[in-house]
Design brief:
The chain is an alpha+beta fold. The protein has two domains: about 80 residues, Immunoglobulin-like; about 120 residues. Helix content is about 50%, strand content about 25%. It is built from four helices and ten strands; from the N terminus they run H-E-E-E-E-E-E-E-E-H-E-E-H-H. It has a five-stranded mixed sheet with strand order 1-8-7-3-4, with no helix packed on it. The protein starts with a helix and ends in a 10-residue tail after the last helix.
């Protein structure tokens, strides 16, 4: 019984020593390393990889692309006072770049920086604003569509097809269709900007931006023609209304 208790105490002591050694190793490794992001920078712009060390020299051990491949290895850093700097310009890929550097004593430091299209990192507030804007535009889109369906699409006619009353509200439908086109164009523009700014792949953002440009050119070219056509139809309806007041019938058996 005593031997069993003695063995148990020895095992407990050995386990305690092992835990203490592991904690000591972690603390020792942590003293010589830093893991705080350098910041967020714009794509294809140079990044000043800098640090402040009370040391005579420092070298970049390696800088890795976001896909973990190595960009550079063993590059000296330029010293000005206590600040060490290295200029890195190969930032065509989006994402997080990880780099490590060391001083003459062998202390190793690890850090990273991010590359985005805008040079800014998306925040929860920005995402919230974009989501609210998209929800508002989508609701406005459905509301406008609902209003279009409530408006008359043609003049009031009787059973024989004779026009009984000229409806000017049918031209408002045409104007609202232009408004819907503008809303969808704005939605496409927002989605393209979100894709370009915050996605690692630019394919989605570029696709929506191409769609936006097509919508924009169609709007610029088509709006004057569309408005001229609406004005012409309104003029024709006014002329028809004037003739109907004089007793002339249109449609069906009328002239």
């Amino acid at each position: 019984m005593k031997n069993t208790q003695k063995n148990t105490q020895q095992e407990t002591l050995q386990s305690t020593i092992k835990v203490f050694l592991i904690i000591s190793m972690v603390v020792f490794m942590g003293v010589g390393s830093v893991n705080a992001s350098l910041g967020t920078f714009k794509i294809n712009e140079c990044v000043q990889v800098k640090t402040i060390l009370n040391s005579t020299q420092a070298n970049i051990s390696s800088i890795s692309y976001p896909n973990s491949t190595i960009a550079i290895t063993e590059q000296p850093m330029t010293k000005v006072g206590l600040t060490f700097n290295y200029t890195f310009c190969d930032t065509a890929a989006l994402g997080t770049y990880v780099y490590d550097y060391y001083d003459e004593l062998g202390n190793v430091y690890v850090n990273d920086f991010k590359i985005t299209y805008t040079g800014e990192e998306v925040t929860s507030q920005q995402i919230f604003i974009y989501i609210i804007a998209l929800i508002f535009l989508i609701l406005l889109l459905f509301g406008t569509s609902f209003l279009i369906n409530k408006l008359p699409s043609k003049d009031a006619i009787d059973e024989e097809g004779t026009i009984m009353q000229v409806s000017m509200l049918k031209h408002l439908r045409t104007v609202l269709w232009v408004f819907i086109w503008v809303i969808t164009m704005v939605i496409t523009f927002i989605i393209s900007n979100l894709g370009i700014a915050y996605l690692n792949s630019k394919m989605i953002g570029d696709l929506f931006f191409v769609i936006y440009r097509i919508q924009f050119y169609v709007l610029i070219i088509g709006t004057p023609v569309y408005l001229c056509w609406i004005i012409y139809k309104i003029f024709k309806d006014k002329e028809m209304k004037r003739l109907m007041e004089r007793g002339i019938e249109f449609g069906g058996k009328g002239l």
